[in-house]
Write a structure and sequence with these properties.
By secondary structure, the protein is of the alpha+beta class.
Length: about 290
């Protein structure tokens, strides 16, 4: 791999080779525009098999935006979008986005795209942290970023994350409820296992909220025709007679909504008395 910090990876398609005297350079600068927008962003592109490309051919590739760290650079991308690549004003190729590695390029969530459910205990904590976690970011560890950047496993009509699913595969399940139950169990992650330093246990909650937000965006990008449930539960350490009774932790899971599943009852969250619960639910147009 050519060593530069990648923003997105995907498939490059060569459309016009005539502007290159010989073969297209494996690493080169270009101008780009996301289809449907009027932009001219400078990008560095790395082609993994440029030496064998002819017009109409495709290869795996990676792309980095030149001004990605400039505060004025504001671009949000989605999986599957097409980026047009140009030399000057002349289009020579296209780049189809398969993976977004730079979290800053993910679209943000708003109230039109997500339903938020929480119990009374979580409501108290949300008021305590005092900021809108959907619009503001909280720093998370590189290890947790790697979990979010890992691929989805989608075999047998189920969705799990490769960084969490120890089997690295999904078994056969028949009913909708069995499929949702498998996802619910195999996407479980302890947020506190990915925390480097805590100012207080509330930081586990803040990191958990950032994780489920980024996870829901990733799910929405890659499975825009489906709806998902993403769950976060949070406990603080409890004491009994000056001794620790239970340690604080944060746990997240997710599963795909299906017609005939009833794995998690959103209207009964207040029946969970010992833990603070928040559930994010995507609201895609087809549903």
């Amino acid at each position: 791999m050519y060593e530069f910090e990648t923003d997105i990876s995907g498939r490059f398609k060569l459309i016009d080779k005539s502007m290159f005297q010989r073969e297209i350079p494996k690493v080169h600068w270009a101008n780009c525009n996301v289809k449907g927008l009027q932009r001219q962003d400078s990008v560095l592109i790395y082609l993994k098999h440029s030496d064998t490309l002819n017009e109409g051919d495709e290869c795996d590739s990676e792309l980095r935006f030149k001004f990605r760290d400039d505060p004025r650079f504001k671009l949000k991308l989605r999986i599957g979008e097409i980026i047009e690549l140009k030399m000057g004003s002349r289009k020579y190729g296209e780049f189809k986005i398969n993976t977004i590695l730079n979290q800053k390029l993910f679209p943000t969530l708003n109230e039109n795209e997500v339903k938020i459910h929480f119990n009374t205990k979580m409501s108290t904590y949300l008021n305590k942290i005092g900021y809108d976690f959907l619009t503001l970011e909280f720093m998370i560890s590189n290890e947790l970023k790697e979990v979010l950047a890992s691929d989805f496993i989608t075999e047998n009509e189920m969705v799990t994350l490769s960084a969490i699913n120890k089997l690295r595969k999904n078994p056969t399940r028949i009913s909708d409820n069995e499929k949702s139950a498998w996802e619910y169990n195999e996407t479980k992650i302890h947020i506190d296992d990915f925390v480097n330093k805590l100012n207080s246990e509330i930081d586990i909650l803040k990191i958990g909220l950032e994780y489920i937000k980024r996870l829901l965006i990733k799910l929405s990008n890659e499975f825009f025709k489906d709806n998902f449930i993403v769950i976060l539960s949070f406990y603080e350490t409890t004491y009994e007679n000056s001794k620790i009774n239970s340690y604080g932790c944060g746990v997240s899971r997710f599963y795909k909504k299906r017609n005939d599943e009833f794995w998690f009852q959103l209207d009964k969250l207040d029946e969970y008395k010992s833990e603070a619960l928040i559930v994010l639910e995507t609201k895609n147009n087809h549903s």
